[in-house]
Amino acid sequence: MSFLDHLEELRWLLVRSSAFILGGGAVAFIFSDFIFDKIIFAPKRSDFVTYQFFCKIAQRFDFDRSFCLQDLPFEIQNRTMDGQFSVLIWTCISAGFIIAVPFILWEIWKFISPALYTKEKKYAKLFIVVSSLLFFMGVVFGYYVITPLSINFLANLQVSDIVKNQIDINSYIGLVKTTSIACGLVFELPIIIYFLSVLDLVTPQFLRDYRKYAIVLILIIAAVITPPDVVSQIIVSIPLLILYEVSIYISLFVHKKNKKIEASKTKQID
C-alpha cells in the first residue's frame, strides 16, 4: 500500500477504537453507581483490602503503621457547578477504554500484521490474550497497590496542623484513573520489547547493559510512591523488575529467531 493508504488504515483504526471506547463507556455509565461507590471511592475508606493487608503486616513485623487508621484524614469535595457531571463523563470514558482494550489491541494487530512474517501472523489470538492479560494485571496492580499506597501517603502528609486536606474530586479521581491505566500500560513492556526487537531497535545486550539504571529508576519510583518502609517498596518494585527481566528474555528469543531467518535466507541465496 502507498503512504496515503496506510494513513487511511490508521484513520479507520482510530475511528473503530473510538467506537469501542464509547461503547464501553456506555456500559460503564449504566453501572456508574457501582463504579463510583464500590471501585473509585473504595480506597478512600480505611477498611479497603490493601490497608487491612498492610496493617496486618505492620503489626506482625513492627513496621510503619500508617495504614492502621480508623479513617483517612481528608474529604473529597466538588468545587465547580459542572464538576460532578464532568467527572461522570470522563470516568465512564476511562472505564470504557479499559473495557475496550482487547478490541483496540485487535485493531492494532490488524494494522501491524502486514509487516510481520507469515508464521508470526498466526499468533494473533495469543497476542490479544497475552496483551490484554498483562494490561488488566497492570490495572489491578495499580488499583490495589500503587493507588492506596499513594493515597495513604499523600493524605497523611502535612506541612502544618493548620492545613486541612479538602481534596477536589477531579484531583482524587484523576489519581485513581491515571495510576491504574498507567500501570496497565507499563505492564505491556514485554509486548513493546517484542516488537522493538522484531524491528531490531532493541537488543538483549542493550537491555542487559542498562539493567542497573533500570533497577535504580524502579527503586526510586517505588520509594517516592510508598511510605518509608522497606516492605512497601519491595512489593512495588518486584513486579516491575520481573517485567524487565522477562523483556530481556523475550528480546533474546526474538534476536535468535531473526538470526536463524537471516541464516536460512543466506543459504537459499548461496
Automatic annotation (TrEMBL):
GO terms of biological process kind: intracellular protein transmembrane transport; protein transport by the Tat complex
Subcellular location: Cell membrane; Membrane
Keywords: Cell membrane, Membrane, Protein transport, Translocation, Transmembrane, Transmembrane helix, Transport
UniProt topology in membrane: Multi-pass membrane protein
Subcellular location, principal: membrane
GO CC term, one of those recorded: TAT protein transport complex
Highest taxon of the lineage: Bacteria
Record Pfam families: TatC (PF00902)
Positions of transmembrane segments: 12-36, 87-106, 126-146, 179-198, 210-228, 234-254
GO molecular-function terms, A-Z: proton motive force dependent protein transmembrane transporter activity
Physiological role: Part of the twin-arginine translocation (Tat) system that transports large folded proteins containing a characteristic twin-arginine motif in their signal peptide across membranes.
Similarity remark: Belongs to the TatC family.
Assembly and binders: Forms a complex with TatA.
Protein name according to UniProt: Sec-independent protein translocase protein TatC
